[in-house]
Amino acid sequence: MSTEHGALLGPADIRELAAALGVRPTKQRGQNFVIDANTVRRIVRTAEVRPDDCVVEVGPGLGSLTLALLETAAHVTAVEIDDVLAAALPATIVARIPEKATSFALVHSDAMLVRELPGPAPTALVANLPYNVAVPVLLHMLDTFPTIERTLVMVQAEVADRLAAAPGSKVYGVPSVKANWYADVKRAGSIGRNVFWPAPNVDSGLVSLVRRAEPVKTTASKREVFAVVDAAFAQRRKTLRAALSGWAGSAAAAEAALVAAGVSPQARGESLTVEEFARIAEHKEAAA
């Protein structure tokens, strides 16, 4: 155990643990283990984890970030889908940070299926999300656990840009609007490739999401609003009049809904805020 970083895992620790478990990071699950203690401490700092926080972590892997979270937070619940990693993590916690073992809980499950968590309600979500499922997992967790106030996720840089994009940006799309339904979203830093094992062939980015103090003011349901968002971006090069014709029943009906919502039928989805999408959803009946 390195003394410089106390309980945290370094590159040699990670490789040793992986070898002992017969673990080879798999592309299929987008596994890239963080091997740098300074990086996980930086993530915890950037996430503004407080001593009274109950943190949920998705995809803890071998436990690099989990240990750093336990150093600061009151409680950490980790959700791990991998059988071998889920079985090994509690022992790693006991071995490296025994005084915090009772502040840790493990849920062996696919995060997309998790509907409840043991222990206190989570106040923060901090995770190094596998690239291939980052957006659906993030949206599912924010939707399922409304007590999560602050989120910091490490994702592929391109996904980070999309999540944090503002209307009018080339990369603004479905993830940007849906994340913004729940939270104020911003880029919170970049992470180099050399802090991972194996080193991915893409850069990573940190995204901060702070839950909206007031939900989007609308009489439409989230499902109704998201249906408009999905339709608008399914054919993003088209005007909203054309893109929403399937959703509304016809191009004329789409135009009626757009005009009623105060949105130009010639606009494109990438120029609209989440509030404008909500207004369109409210006026679907104008389309009827």
From TrEMBL:
Catalyses which reaction(s): adenosine(1518)/adenosine(1519) in 16S rRNA + 4 S-adenosyl-L-methionine = N(6)-dimethyladenosine(1518)/N(6)-dimethyladenosine(1519) in 16S rRNA + 4 S-adenosyl-L-homocysteine + 4 H(+)
Entries under SMART domains matching the protein: rADc (SM00650)
E.C. numbers: 2.1.1.182
Binding residues annotated for S-adenosyl-L-methionine, in chain numbering: N32, V34, G59, E80, D110, N128
Domain Ribosomal RNA adenine methylase transferase N-terminal: start-end pairs: 39-213
Statement: the UniProt record of this protein carries the keyword Cytoplasm: yes
InterPro entries attached to this UniProt entry: KsgA/Erm (IPR001737), rRNA_Ade_diMease-like_C (IPR023165), rRNA_Ade_Mease_Trfase_CS (IPR020596), rRNA_Ade_methylase_Trfase_N (IPR020598), rRNA_adenine_dimethylase (IPR011530), SAM-dependent_MTases_sf (IPR029063)
GO molecular function list: 16S rRNA (adenine(1518)-N(6)/adenine(1519)-N(6))-dimethyltransferase activity
Keyword annotations: Cytoplasm, Methyltransferase, RNA-binding, rRNA processing, S-adenosyl-L-methionine, Transferase
Subcellular location: Cytoplasm
Stated role: Specifically dimethylates two adjacent adenosines (A1518 and A1519) in the loop of a conserved hairpin near the 3'-end of 16S rRNA in the 30S particle. May play a critical role in biogenesis of 30S subunits.
PANTHER family in UniProt: DIMETHYLADENOSINE TRANSFERASE, DIMETHYLADENOSINE TRANSFERASE-RELATED
Family named by the database record: Belongs to the class I-like SAM-binding methyltransferase superfamily. rRNA adenine N(6)-methyltransferase family. RsmA subfamily.
Family annotation (HAMAP family): 16SrRNA_methyltr_A (MF_00607)
Record's protein name: Ribosomal RNA small subunit methyltransferase A
Lineage: Bacteria, Bacillati, Actinomycetota, Actinomycetes, Kitasatosporales
This protein's encoding gene: rsmA
